[in-house]
Amino acid sequence: MLIDTYGRVATDLRVSLTDRCNLRCTYCMPEEGLQWLAKPDLLSDDEIVRLIGIAVTRLGITEVRFTGGEPLLRPGIVGIVERVAALEPRPQMSLTTNGIGLKRTATALKAAGLDRVNVSLDTLRPDVFKALTRRDRHQDVIAGLEAARDAGLTPVKVNCVLMPGLNDDEAPDLLAWAVEHDYELRFIEQMPLDAQHGWKREGMVTAGDILASLRTRFALTEEGVDERGSAPAERWLVDGGPHRVGVIASVTRPFCAACDRTRLTADGQIRNCLFATEETDLRNALRSDAPDEEIARIWRLAMWGKKAGSGLDDPSFLQPARPMSSIGG
Ligand code: SAM
Ligand code: SF4
């Protein structure tokens, strides 16, 4: 098991397949992009599958989420999903994507064994999309969402970050649209994980703001706390259900005490928290022929040292050196 000194057990593995991206969301990376990881530093498909195998067979991982960067930019993604689906025990598999490549890949991903997708979409207005992501690809995301639903990668969840002055007036419209198309909408509070360090606590749109805005048009009923489990989204029934809306309030209502995550970066580093300032290298062990049990031992040790919380509420908080796109969000 991957247990820490506070008794939390990690069962959910987030795997970053690449740090590259075809969008430039303002809350994530600068217009010119970033210094991408060098090819030889990236784990190969075989190395990724081996590490996930160790996690599933020796460390109690039951859920694997592929992310990035934009994970659909990784050429071998369908093959990776297929090989992970063949593992015993087979983990649940999901993907967080900006949706642009889904029209092309949704059917193949489903056939390979992917269970679900989360697609990030912050606005229904193409001009706002262009301002937020610095690319004119709104229609591709909409098409990707439809392809995911048609392929049965359901429930399709939509991740949405609200930015002051850009799309913070859109929460009720986004929810009405999500209900109409049978997508489960989840708002994510903007976190200080952008490469350009532009996050400001004072300016951010909080969970409280989002709920107040939604309540101008919808009746929201909070689901029981048990339903929340270790999932970070607090969920509300919309107008009595069955549709739900989620809010991931990592900044104003952190869920660190219930965290069940461990993260693997595209260059083979274990992170025990999004906000960790330290990482543990597995790539070197992999490439020096360490046996599975040795790799599992290093991974267990990395998780044992997990801190109680993100430290976001502490004035001495330090943003991690790696931005979200390179950690794997
Ligand atoms: N490129 C894929 C995508 O956008 O879905 C996967 C990686 S992205 C880093 C994962 C999620 O993190 C997205 O839903 C994105 O909106 C969110 N995200 C990125 N930067 C963020 C930030 N500073 N605060 C909150 N969420 C952020
Ligand atoms: Fe790319 Fe996702 Fe970051 Fe947007 S949030 S720039 S889509 S990695």
Can you summarize this structure?
This protein has 329 residues and is of the alpha/beta class. Helices cover 31% and strands 17% of the residues.
Task: Write structural notes for this entry.
This protein has 329 residues and is of the alpha/beta class. It has helices at residues 45-58, 77-85, 102-112, 126-133, 138-151, 171-181, 207-215, 225-228, 283-287, 292-304, 324-327, and strands at 2-3, 9-10, 12-16, 63-67, 92-97, 116-120, 157-160, 184-188, 220-222, 234-238, 244-248, 261-264, 269-271, 280-281. The chain has a single domain (2-165, 252-327), classed as TIM Barrel, CATH 3.20.20. The chain contains 11 helices and 14 strands. Helix 3 packs parallel to helix 5 (138-151). The structure holds S-adenosylmethionine (SAM) and iron/sulfur cluster. Iron/sulfur cluster binds at residues 21, 23-25, 28-29, 68-70, 98, 120, 325.
Q: Could you say which overall geometry the principal axes of the C-alpha atoms support? A: globular
Beta-strand percent range: 15-25%
Q: Trace the largest sheet across and list its strands.
A: 9-10-11-8-7-6-5-4-3-12-13-14
Number of helices: 11
Q: Please give the oligomerization state of what you see.
A: single chain
Family: Belongs to the radical SAM superfamily. MoaA family.
GO molecular function: 4 iron, 4 sulfur cluster binding; cyclic pyranopterin monophosphate synthase activity; GTP 3',8'-cyclase activity; GTP binding; metal ion binding; S-adenosyl-L-methionine binding
Binding site for [4Fe-4S] cluster 2: 256, 259, 273
Organism: Streptomyces olivochromogenes
